[in-house]
Design goal:
432 residues; eight-stranded mixed beta sheet; globular; alpha/beta; 8 strands; single chain
């Protein structure tokens, strides 16, 4: 029961619609027949709606949401508070059954508002992601591959068997399969295996190590869906993906750097995860077919580690990332992560890493995407794409029309990035 609840889909499910229907149905029952003072109910609805809407706009202007609210989020907040306030007003008047229904309406309205705002962002798919925990099953890893196919030509040599599943599989990397971390305490990672990895004699596939944003969890929902879409168009082939934790907790930001405060997060991604992947997964050992990727905070880590470690990460996937780690709270990052050393903070930036490894990015691909309505992170993505191109990366970039910094930008960015990387990863013929 606990796992069922924690893995319940919150966005792509009828839950929000059901809650809204409950609110409307209860509201109709409460006001029909009309209460003694219907004007009180109407005033409460309007006051709560307008007050909630204005409160959301003020909070947005004060930077409480780290950027603009998605479309309709303020309306969800206003509508939820409007019906909740009306419910509380009615709860103190009338017969007992009306009071009880009023409480039900208030609770359902607040829940609908929360789920509506969450759906507007389009990022947090399950209660487990809300609470910052891993709730997927820990499933057995596939047997070692014996295939010796050339990874650069896999698109032309692979033949899918008749019993290959139509979609990939997600699971937790916990228990015996947990990735060891030296000097760092990450939350359990998640694993996506594409259809081609689930057959009796699977090929060795490219590897993506992906990170979500902050606050966030190692939730594979978005990238698994994107990889399933990619696999459906590529004969079941797609990269194997590890979705790992670069934060340690929802309220932390280690800024992609080993520190006394947050532990050895960089070592985890550049040493521990690569060693575990080679030893336990059917991935090619050639780092030209490896991708370090992420969204938002995870995107800034991906570009940083890809720039710092070209011998480990042959490619970078940066979806709506920060311009550099800690860009949203520079002085806090300098104090907490770099012990007050501003020069060390600058030396750990992607631009400094690109300069330090000049000439080492030939053949490497970097993908940068952002929503064209994302005024907070978009300019940094444009700047980083130019930096990567100047350093020698082959750069693909996309500004996603009509998107901000939410799920729409993430989903479309993943699709663009995977299509752009496919020839480099041996999953599609060379472009042109």
């Amino acid at each position: 029961m606990r796992q069922w609840f924690l893995t319940l889909e919150l966005i792509d499910s009828p839950i929000l619609g059901v809650l809204c229907a409950i609110v409307v149905a209860v509201a109709v029952v409460i006001v029909w027949p009309a209460p003694r003072h219907p004007w009180r109910w109407l005033i409460a609805v309007v006051a709560g709606l307008v007050g909630g809407f204005l409160l959301a706009l003020v909070a947005e202007a004060l930077g409480a949401f780290d950027g603009p609210l998605p479309d309709h989020a303020a309306l969800w907040i206003g509508g939820g508070l409007g019906f909740a306030v009306a419910g509380l007003v009615v709860a103190f008047t009338g017969p007992w059954w009306r009071r009880l229904l009023a409480v039900v309406m208030a609770v359902a309205a607040l829940m609908a508002a929360a789920l509506g705002v969450n759906a507007s962002y389009g990022l947090t798919h399950t209660p487990a992601a809300v609470f910052g925990i891993q709730a997927l099953d820990d499933l057995p890893l596939p047997a070692p591959a014996t295939s010796a196919d050339d990874p650069a030509a896999l698109y032309s040599t692979w033949t899918a068997p008749a019993d290959m599943p139509a979609t990939g599989r997600v699971s937790a990397l916990s228990g015996e399969d947990r990735i060891p971390a030296e000097g760092y305490s990450p939350r359990d990672a998640a694993l996506y295996l594409p259809p081609a990895a689930l057959v009796a004699n699977p090929p060795r596939l490219p590897l993506i190590v992906f990170m979500m944003g902050q606050p966030g969890t190692p939730d594979p929902t978005s990238i698994a869906a994107a990889l399933d879409r990619f696999a459906a168009a590529h004969n079941g082939l797609a990269p194997i993906a590890i979705v790992a934790d670069q934060l340690g907790a929802i309220d932390r930001d280690p800024a992609c750097h080993d520190s006394a405060t947050y532990g050895a997060v960089s070592t985890y991604f550049t040493t521990d995860i690569p060693a575990w992947a080679v030893a336990h997964l059917n991935v090619t050992a050639d780092r030209s077919f490896w991708v370090i990727g992420g969204y938002s905070n995870g995107g800034s880590c991906a570009f940083t580690w890809g720039a710092q470690n070209p011998q480990i990460w042959g490619n970078v996937m940066d979806i709506s990332g920060n311009e550099y780690p800690g860009s949203e709270h520079v002085q806090q990052t300098i104090d907490e992560v770099f012990a007050g050393d501003a020069a060390a903070f600058q030396a750990a930036s992607p631009s400094a890493a690109l300069a330090a490894h000049a000439g080492q990015y030939a053949g490497h691909v970097a993908v940068f995407t952002h929503g064209d309505q994302d005024a907070v992170f978009g300019p940094g993505q444009v700047s980083n794409a130019a930096l990567a191109s100047d350093a020698g990366f082959t750069v693909f970039s996309d500004s996603i029309a009509g998107a901000g910094h939410g799920g729409e930008a993430l989903d479309a960015g993943l699709d663009f990035a995977l299509d752009s990387l496919a020839p480099r990863l041996g999953l599609a013929p060379p472009a042109g």
